[in-house]
Every structure is written in C-alpha cells, then in structure tokens.
Amino acid sequence: MEKSVAYIALFAAMIAVLGLLPKISLGFGVPITAQSLGIMLCGTVLGARRGALAVLLFLLIVALGLPLLSGGRGGLGVFMGPTAGFLVGWVAAAFVTGLIVQYWRGMPVAVVASVASVIGGIIVLYGFGIVGMAIVLNKSFIEAAALVVAFIPGDIVKAIIAGLLTAALARARPGSLMGRRPAR
C-alpha cells in the first residue's frame, strides 16, 4: 500500500516536471507539451488503476491552483478551456494504456508499451480532446479533429519513447512494472 502511494505521488510529480518544458502554443489554445508522455508512462509502468490515480492526483493539484500545466497554467479555469477534454481524457488514457500493458502478453514489453501508448495515450486521449474542443470552440467534431492532426507525429514519437523507457525499466529492475506482474 505504502509503495503504491509513493509511486502514485512520484508519477504525479513526473507529470508536473514534464510541464516545465517550454510549451509550443497552437493558435486554437491547445499547446504541444511533454506531459502526455508522462500520462503514457503512468499507464505503462504503474498499470491501469495506479496510473489513473496518479493522473487524478496531478489534476487535483492543478485544480487547487498550482500552475503545473505547460506554460504555468493551473486552477479551475483550465477545465473550462480548449484543453479541458484532453485533461479529463488523461485519466482514461492512463487507464486504457495500463490495461493493455497489464493483459497483453507474448510480445516484448517495448512493443506492448508503445502500442498501448498509441491506443490509450493517443486514440483514447484524442477522443476526449476532440469532444472538448468541439464544445469549447463551438466547432464540429470534424473541424476539431482536423485541429489535432498537428499533434500526431509528436505523440507517436512520445509513444515510442514510452515503450523504450518502459522496456528499459523492466530490464533494469525486473518486476518493477506494477501493472504487469509475471504470469502464474
């Protein structure tokens, strides 16, 4: 229990640190940020439940006003802007990514973690983000989807990095992937 709490807090802090990297702002209010890599890693390393809890802890701290999102943003207002769908989607993204890593066996960890990051950290996340942008920006779902195309190349690179980092961690510390225990 204590170990889980420590890892949840550690990964929430990692998401915050990734927000310190300079953001690249796009014209429609959604920045390109390294924090989505942290979301992917929450799922691949901590598993579905713990990964989602780490993201929830981070979002709670942001909601309380700490400026931990890229560009030094924080407070309840960020949950009303164009990024709201992405922020809510972070929880689902970490959970889905973790589920895939937890249950998909028979492939190398790097492959599983990368594919899980694409499915959870890109496809699921974009679903939430597109809906949020369509609502906040008063656009159709197709128009909102067209806006997120700019994120795809960078997010694919992040998914590959998440897979490689997860595999490296699994090699360096066997059994360290909390959501992927050896089959019995």
TrEMBL record:
GO terms for molecular function: biotin transmembrane transporter activity. InterPro entries: BioY. It is a multi-pass membrane protein. It is found in: Cell membrane. The chain crosses the membrane at residues 5-22, 53-72, 84-104, 111-138, 144-170. Gene3D superfamilies: 1.10.1760.20. GO terms for cellular component: plasma membrane. The keyword Glycoprotein does not apply. Its main location: membrane. Keywords: Cell membrane, Membrane, Transmembrane, Transmembrane helix, Transport. Signal peptide: none annotated. Belongs to the BioY family. This is Biotin transporter.
